[in-house]
Amino acid sequence: LAHSAARERVPIEPGFFTIPDDPKQPPRLLGSRCRACGEHFFPRREICAKCLNQGTDDVALSPRGTLYTWTYVYFPMFNSKRGDTGGYGVGQVDLPEGPRIQAVLSGGPGDFQIGMPMELELEVLRENSKGQDVVIHRFRPVSPRAEAAR
Amino acid sequence: MKPGEVAVLGVGMTRFGVYPDRSNAELAREAGVAALRDAGISFAQVGEAFVGYLFGTVMTGIKAMKELGLTGLPVTHVENASATGLVAFREAVYAVASGRCEIAMALGFDRMSQSLRAGSGSRGIGRDEIDSVILPAAYFSLWAMRRMHERGTKPLHFAEIAAKNWNHGALNPKSDRQPDHVVTAEEVLASRKIAEPVTAMMTCPVDDGAACAIVARPELAQRLQPGRPLVTVLASVLQTETYTPGHTFVGPVVGPPSMSRDTAREAYEKAGVGPEDVDLVLVHDAFANEELEYYELLGFAAPGEAEKLVETGATRLGGRIPFNTDGGLIARGHPGGPTGLAQIHEIALQLRGEAGRRQVPDARIGLAHLVGGGSVCAISLLARGYTA
Q: What is the pLDDT of residue B257?
């Protein structure tokens, strides 16, 4: 695989998250906010699941949240063609807007604690036939250093 | 449908296991013939059939039904993931209750071992790919980790439940897993770690098999089977998710847990009974920690008290309220489509007093519960000797 800095990244599925041009910027999950009751959802939906109002606004959700629960799976990641995934974390992260996001976590089994702050990032799952990196969203624990820099 | 308006006329099933050389049609025929024999009727008397499977292609069900005969009866396919068998049962019950037919059949089969090996199914395509990165084992482990955080539950609690179900399986000739020794919680904990904190022996096997239940009006059952204890249906309900804050929409979703509580409430209301009236319970223990949650969600323990049921052995055979007397998904097995009908099979035998070494003394009311991905919850309550 060629590892140039400018490899093009494409989402595993369009419409779920942004891929910022600046790799230092966190991606954002693409959600919806109900025009009637204000409930937030991920992923995007047209009809509010709470009040059934037809009509939502597109919103970019906060890239940070709180770890509600987690596990560490001792298997290679499904659909990942990378050889180095002996296991992987999975968790549910509560965003400040309300949605609970179920996603892959980056880190080892000793890195997670319920209630800890988490931040969204992108992970390369595999290369597609066009030579692009297929990426998926995942959360990582907010590092103390990054926290101090804020 | 009023409680007791429909009776279970007959049940039959194959032993669950891995059968690389047996077709869906062959498995379906074995279970169907066994249920017809148990009911004491000919296939010609079956007025309607509901056939359930997860892993076949279109028409698989109708072709399997032809193994039993070509009588022109209406056949409908049912698919609700792991809950498929109980949903097919519910449809058969309502076909009789509505007067649409006198005798209805629910038949489920699957060869999950072959299907997963072949990589078929919906995982990994388009929208589904984003869901499939997280496996069901991870999903239920998320429940377990949260439970441990909130209630101080130990992996040992989950291991005790798994060991209990393995040991129940040893008493059931239809169980996939029939251990030749008493399985201990320590042995369960020492097995391979799947997803924190769940180990391999806390999970159900990937199985093949078939199961069948035949239902009819109680008067007809009594006429066809004089002298046999009557087994009737008090309620058979199905719910999907009700939106709650913190709902997850991406990845495997078999919940929220409140779905089981809501469905149980509806089942008890329709049946006119409560958890205190129930003598045995079969639940979706694909992962042992699920069973612990269902102790509370189905009303058998107050919130935070489920661990005490484990510690006192209350849910073992011989305990106050035995759970998964046939081994549950963990031992008896979980092919998919037939799983719920295996639960009906077990409860019918228990209520008739025909469950052999695993008989719950004087069992009068049994509850069958399954959740299915997507997601759904199905619950049926059966009783002995109840007349509407």
A: 86
Query: Which residue in B33, B29, B28 sits closest to B53, CA to CA?
Result: B28
Kind and range of the H or E run holding B91: helix B84-97
Helix (H, G, I), strand (E, B) or coil at B388: coil
pLDDT in tens, B62-93: 999 999 999 999 999 999 999 999 999 999 99
Report pLDDT digits (tens) over A34-67.
Answer: 999 999 999 999 999 999 999 999 999 999 999 9
Give the span between the Cα atoms of B348 and B16, in whole angstroms: 18
Of the residues B125, B134, B135, the best mutation for testing chain A's interface (the one with the most A CB atoms within 10 Å of its CB) is: B134
Comparing A88-97, A109-118, B110-119, the range with the smallest average pLDDT is: B110-119
How far is the C-alpha of A80 from the C-alpha of B284, rounded, in Å? 29
Residue B248 has its nearest CB partner, among A16, A74, A92, at A92
Report cis status (omega within 30 of 0) of the bond before B173: no
Asked whether the beta carbons of A30 and A16 are under 8 A apart, the reply is yes
Would an 8 Å CB–CB cutoff place A103 in contact with chain B?
yes
pLDDT at B118: 58
Q: Which of B161, B231, B286, B299 is nearest to B8 (CA)?
A: B231
C-alpha A129/C-alpha B339 separation (Å) is 41
pTM: 0.94
- Residue B31 sits at the vertex; the CA angle it makes with B28 and B34, to the nearest 5 degrees, is 145
Close Cβ partners of A136 (under 8 Å, ≥ 6 residues apart): A11, A12, A104, A122, A123, A125, B130, B133
Give residue B30's pLDDT band: very low, low, confident or very high (50, 70, 90): very high
Contacts of A50 in chain B (CB under 8 A): 243
Contact B365, B382 (CB under 8 A): yes
Closest residue by Cα to residue B307 from B156, B143, B165: B156
* Nearest partner of B204 among B131, B107, B284, judged by Cα: B284
Across the interface, which of B124, B130, B145 has its CB nearest the CB of A16?
B130
Question: DSSP readout, A64-105?
Answer: EEEEEEEEEE-SPPTT---TT-S-EEEEEEE-TTSPEEEEEE
With CA atoms as reference, the chain B residue closest to A109 would be B196
Tell how far CA A146 is from the center of its chain: 18
Residue B348 CB-half CA count within 13 A: 27
Is A67 within 8 Å of chain B by CB? no
Whole-number average pLDDT of chain A = 88
